[in-house]
Task: structure prediction
Amino acid sequence: MNWLDWLNDFFSAPARRTGPDSIVHRVSEHLLLSGEALLYAALLAVPLGLLIGYTGRGVTAVTALAGAARALPTLGLVTLAVLLAGVGDTAVLIPLVALAAPPLLVAAVEGVRGTDPDVRDAARGIGLTHPQVL
Result:
């Protein structure tokens, strides 16, 4: 039996079409967990990134810590989360949020810092408040 026959048998099995082990169910479960983790990471990282980028305080530290966090091994984080939180959705969400937040944080900081200074000065010049400028 070659691998094409095996692949055909795998996808054509009745258990893969319906029920809790179906491919559609597993893909939707994956998309839901990924979307939830991205939502939590964005809720944590984007406001913090906007604040850090606007004030300019701690930019170097945030960039360095985010770079270090990107180097964390995913399997190690999942193992640690399972040991701490047990098996379940929480054990999956913790590492996913921890791995999604650093790039979002750096992107928000650099997005605010990359704004043309003349535009910020013009906004202040016409009387906008700090939240309006942001």
Summary: Residues 36-133 form one domain.
